[in-house]
Structure formats: C-alpha cells, structure tokens
Amino acid sequence: MLIRREQLDLLTDARHRLNSLAELSCCEEKTKRFLMEFIERHTSMELHDMGAWFYAVHRECDARHTVAARADFDAVPTEGGAEHLCGHDGHSAALLALALMLEGASVGKDVVLLFQHAEEIGAGARECCRLFEIERIEEIIGCHNIPQEELGTVMIRRGTFACASCGLTLKLSGKPAHAAYPEDGLNPSYALVDVVSKLKGCAGANGGELLECGMITIAGIHSGDKAFGMSASAAELWLTLRAATDNALKKLVSGVTEITEAIAKKHKLDFSVEVCDMFPATVNCDRCVERLISACANNGIKIEYPETPFRWSEDFGEYLSNINGVFFGIGAGKDAPPLHTAGYEYPDALIMPTAEALFAYITTD
User: Fold this and answer.
1) pTM
2) Residue whose C-alpha is closest to residue 264's, from 353, 169, 194
3) How many other CB atoms are found less than 10 A from the CB of residue 85?
4) pLDDT digits over 5-38, tens only?
5) pLDDT tens column, 320-344
6) Which residue, among 52, 50, 41, 46, has the nearest Cα to 14 in the 3D structure?
C-alpha cells in the first residue's frame, strides 16, 4: 500500500466531511471546493477549475500517453434535502487516495483525475466530455460501489456493464366539466387506466427481471386535482424505461409512445410525450477490460464476472461513447444496505481497495 497511516486517517476524515456536505446535482459548490482544497494542500498536481466540475493532472515529462480516472460527487434528493445514499462521497475519497498514491510516483503516463458533478441526473458527463480534447485523453476508467457483494471484490463485465435508461412523461389532455355532469367533458383518467393496464404485461413491468426488450417501471401517476366539483381534464404517467443497449431503449420508448398515443386517440384526448434523464448504456471496451483483468490478477485483487448487466444506469456511458475505457463494480460488503436506501453509507474500508484497483489499472500496460 502506497499510503501512510496518517494519510489513511486523512482520507477517512475527508470521506466523512464529504458525506456531511451532501449537495444535489448542479449545486455541489461546497463539495467541489473541499475536494479542490484537499488536492491543493496535499499534492503537487495541476488543478483546473471548469466551473461545475474540475480535474487534476499528474504529469510526467516522458509520458507515453494520457489516461483518466473519474469520480462523481453529487448526492441524491431525500425528504431532508440531499444525502450520499449512492456512495459518491466514497468514490471521490477513493480518487483523493489515488492522488496521494500518484504523488512522487513514476507511472510512465500522464494521469488525469476527473471530479464530475451531476451524475444522478445524467447531465454531468456530457459536459465533462470536452476534457478528452483538452488533455488528449486516450482512455478512461471509473467504478461504482456494489452493496451486498464481498468488500473489495472487483466486478468486471465485457460489453454492457450498466443499462441505458430514461424518464418518460406521458401527458393526456381532455376537457374539464362539472363533477355533476362529467359527460360534458373528457376525463383522461380512464385512458390512463387503459395505458397502465396495457403496459403491465410489457417489458418486465412487474419487476424481477430485465427482459431482452427492456424494462418499464411506473414512477408516478397523476390525474386532475383535489377539487371535488370538477371532473379531471389532465393526467400524466411517469415511467422509467431501461434496456441493455441504446438501440433497445430507443425501440422501447417508441413502443410505449405508440401504445399511449393509440389509447389517447381512442378516447379523443390530446397526447404529448417528454423524455428526460437520458443515460446511455455503459459499454466497456474489450481491450480495456482485458487490461483491468490482468491488473487485478497481477495485484491479488479478487475478480467476479456478473452474468447480466446491472439494471441501474451510469452516465459514465457518455464517456465510453466517445473514447475507450472500462467501468467496474467493487463490493461494498455483504451486509451493506442497497443503494439509495435510508440505511446506506459508503464504508470507509472500501476507500483504499478502490484506489488500489484504479492504481493497478493505471500502472498496467
């Protein structure tokens, strides 16, 4: 381990500080400031402030090429505001650890540490892609902690690691009427019931599996207002769609849209659709996967190979749509609560195994 005991304590304190700073996507000002100050205080790396995000560079005069490692630093929305229920505080702490490991080291390449905002809403990576041209980056590596898997075990998949997904808002508009004379209006609630019923048998809508054609989850339903003198005239259905490939997701969006549009037409309603929170599939480069496997094997890091892609999405897919790279999972402990649940907190014991896996990859040719 290339970290001293006092540095490990420093990283643990940093992770706790990041956890207490938890900020929503695009609002991570204190978090970003803390991370930049840490690197400035404890390393000699170049710092580049890019507004909502930043990066640090370990430069070597005889560098053969440039590789990037990325961490995210936004939190998830909760009733109390924002909390790090996805472990982005730990991801950032692990990248701080990597910065300390690179200090004074010679790895034969330039290493860019990318600290990214707004991962939770799928917006940050798109903005950060311009880094590739600025620093002539040839490949990128990133990871996510995986609760209920053995602590420190690296999970690697060839091809799709994490699914493509998007949010879909289906809007049905009718005509208002007095609640005593509903026949004078067009109430979209009945059409909404038809849509939900039709979708129930489609694409894993009952949960439990990711079918080849994708998966549909109902995020919310709204019709009318709490005004008992009125018959509802507007309704919305909020869906999350996911699939193992970008093309499959596109087909799923089209299919759901066509079903809803046909039902709206049958009920003589106006119809519109909005797509948001678009995440491309995270598809690993074969060559980078093989290099990560070799790096882990040569450094005694345990590896597992998940049979299917993870259902959740990661905007790291934006990077892999532009350059070669690899994204892996790393176990957060068998007893760790699931991501985005109230009992979850990134384990401090995972900071160094994550940094060591990243360092192993970076130092493997």
Assistant:
1) 0.92
2) 194
3) 22
4) 999 999 999 999 999 999 999 999 999 999 999 9
5) 999 999 999 999 999 999 999 999 9
6) 41
Looking at residue 58, its amino acid is: H
Distance, C-alpha 355 to centroid of its chain: 19
The second-level CATH assignment, the architecture, of 5-160+282-362 is: 3-Layer(aba) Sandwich (3.40)
Does 164-279 match 5-160+282-362 at the fold level? Answer: no
Cβ contact 314:177 at 8 Å: no
Contact 287, 323 (CB under 8 A): no
Three-state SS string across 197-260, please? Answer: HHHHCCCCCCCCCCECCEEEEEEEEEECCCCCCEECCEEEEEEEEEECCHHHHHHHHHHHHHHH
Q: Using the predicted structure, report yes or no on whether residue 211 has a pLDDT greater than 70.
A: no
Q: Are 46 and 110 in contact (CB under 8 A)?
A: no
Comparing CA positions, the residue from 101, 99, 86 lying closest to residue 143 is 86
Q: How far apart are CA 11 and CA 225, in angstroms?
A: 50
DSSP 256: H
- Rounded average pLDDT over 315-319: 97
| Structure-token pair, residue 277 | 């929170």
DSSP 8-class letter at 242: E
Cβ 336 vs Cβ 147: under 8 Å: yes
Shortest CA distance to 137 belongs to which of 57, 72, 51, 35? 57
For 132, list phi and psi in degrees, rounded to 5.
Answer: -60, -40
Name the residue among 135, 55, 136 with its Cα closest to residue 95.
55
Q: Tokens for 276? A: 């948001």
Number of DSSP helices (H) and strands (E) in the chain, helices first: 10, 18
With H, G, I as helix, E, B as strand and everything else as coil, classify residue 324. strand
Distance separating alpha carbons of residues 88 and 351, to the nearest angstrom: 11
Q: Kindly state the tokens that stand for 135.
A: 């620093």
Fold of 164-279: Alpha-Beta Plaits (3.30.70)
Domain ranges of the chain: 5-160+282-362, 164-279
